[in-house]
Automatic annotation (TrEMBL):
Cell wall formation. Catalyzes the addition of glutamate to the nucleotide precursor UDP-N-acetylmuramoyl-L-alanine (UMA). It comes from Vagococcus teuberi. Its EC number is 6.3.2.9. Belongs to the MurCDEF family. One of its GO terms (cellular component) is cytoplasm. This is UDP-N-acetylmuramoylalanine--D-glutamate ligase.
């Protein structure tokens, strides 16, 4: 980390805690700033705030008092999840107080360069693939950071110029950057998401596009050529563009005759990827673009991607039990994500567990994806809607249940040797679970209990 005096004796407000807020507060304190932390939770319920208080940092909890801004702060580092419509942020904007997110703070003091990855789907998998590939090529060099669960402000403290921060970035984080400039950046895709936060799709896209705002021709921006929106946006970037595509030959990485190829160099067969699904082919192509621009040899890329087993809850391979393969794709919280996961399997040998929160949409577009499937086990608020779609898709066996325990029991009963059981809900989890991770963990636990012994 650079020994910067930029924030020495500066009064800085860290708004909102969680992991990123704690990391930002500690980093700023180490840099010599006068740090005040403000979090909406009560102090008695706020372990993170208590720890910061004990470390000597000023902590104000139980709401966001507007008069706090009368303290003369020169900067606010906000939790990415707090929207700019929050009254304290609206007042800060009127007062002209700069607002950043902690990834910007980390960049300002980092000795290590950044590789940034954003997009609607595939960010975590692509980020993890890139890290694994670089590890194969240069062990102990790549450090995971960002939205993947490792706040950049934590990671940067130990990073040196010989490291590289492979950083997953959300649209929320990117709204709070100023100087941040990755040497290599990836946008996996852009679909409609987080409209409740951004207000419109246009604003969401603008937030994602900020990843390249400071990039120059010396930097590389990797884009999905299969999305016309990104092709059009590319015209406004100063960065050097490398493309990836599953549909056509491009300058970059593409799928050709079943091979993952980079500018006419055949890297590996798509069937040799360690994780199934068309979305993982896209993720791998994006990772290959990063690897080639980073200077990684083809053999290291091939070895890493063939051994890649996924990340938790994202087409995660759980194991083979009694000849049946089991995958956890609880992260498939929408129809598009589930469609991409299912595309990697043979429907005639697939037992799908699906269902969850009812967002009011129909499942008509899901019908072609599940046509002639061996079986589907349904739970959650959407089970009746999905049951109707499954009947139209001529799914051979359809079962509705109330719990994950029952879902796994039915799936295990139906599946036979060489079949696959896949949890890919196509729905959010909030009708039954606090998040998709809890749902996926329960699925894995039930598999272990029922057949994994």
């Amino acid at each position: 980390m650079k020994q910067s005096k930029r924030y020495t004796n500066e009064k800085i407000l860290v708004l909102g805690l969680a992991r990123s807020g704690v990391a930002a507060a500690k980093l700023l304190y180490e840099l010599g700033a006068f740090v005040t932390v403000n979090d909406a939770k009560k102090l008695s319920e706020n372990k993170e705030a208590q720890e910061l208080l004990e470390a000597g940092i000023t902590v104000i909890t139980d709401g966001h008092p507007l008069d706090l801004l009368d303290e003369g702060f020169s900067l606010i580092v906000k939790n990415p999840g707090i929207p700019y419509t929050n009254p304290i942020l609206e007042k800060a904007i009127k007062k002209g107080i700069p607002i950043i997110t902690e990834v910007e703070l980390a960049y300002q003091v980092s000795e290590a360069p950044f590789i940034g990855i954003t997009g609607t789907n595939g960010k975590t998998t692509t980020t993890t693939m890139i890290k694994q590939i670089i590890d194969s090529y240069q062990p102990n060099t790549a450090l995971l950071a960002g939205n993947i669960g490792f706040p950049a402000s934590d990671v940067v403290v130990e990073a040196t110029k010989d490291n590289v921060l492979v950083t997953e970035l959300s649209s929320f984080q990117l709204m709070g950057i100023d100087e941040f400039k990755p040497h290599i950046a990836v946008i996996t895709n852009i679909y409609e998401a987080h409209i409740d936060y951004h207000g419109t799709r246009e604003e969401y896209v603008k937030a994602k596009w900020r990843i390249q705002k400071n990039m120059t021709k010396e930097d590389t921006l990797i884009l999905n050529a299969d999305l016309p929106e990104l092709v059009e946006l590319s015209k406004s970037s100063q960065a050097a563009i490398t493309w990836f595509s599953t549909n056509e030959k491009v300058t970059g990485a593409y799928l050709e005759d079943g091979w993952l190829t980079y500018n006419d160099e055949k890297i590996m067969k798509s069937g040799d990827l360690g994780v199934p699904g068309s979305h993982n082919v896209e993720n791998a192509l994006a990772a290959i673009c990063v690897a080639k621009n980073y200077g990684v040899d083809n053999e290291s890329i091939k070895t890493s991607l063939s051994l890649f087993s996924g990340v938790p809850h994202r087409t995660e391979y759980i194991g083979t039990f009694n000849g049946v393969k089991v995958y956890n794709d609880s992260k498939a919280t929408n129809i598009l994500a589930a469609k991409k996961a299912i595309s990697g399997f043979n429907n005639e040998q697939l037992v799908l567990i699906a269902g969850g929160l009812d967002r009011g949409n129909s499942f008509d577009e899901f019908i072609p994806t599940i046509e002639n499937m061996k079986a589907i086990v349904l739970l959650g608020e959407t089970k009746e809607k999905l049951q109707k779609a499954a009947k139209q898709a001529l799914v051979k066996e359809i079962v509705c249940v109330e719990t994950m325990t029952e879902a796994v029991a039915e799936a295990v009963k139906i599946a036979s040797t060489d079949d696959t059981i896949l949890l890919s809900p196509a729905c959010a989890s909030w009708d039954m679970y606090p998040n998709f991770e809890t749902r996926g963990t329960e699925f894995v636990d039930e598999i272990t209990k029922q057949v994994g012994k």
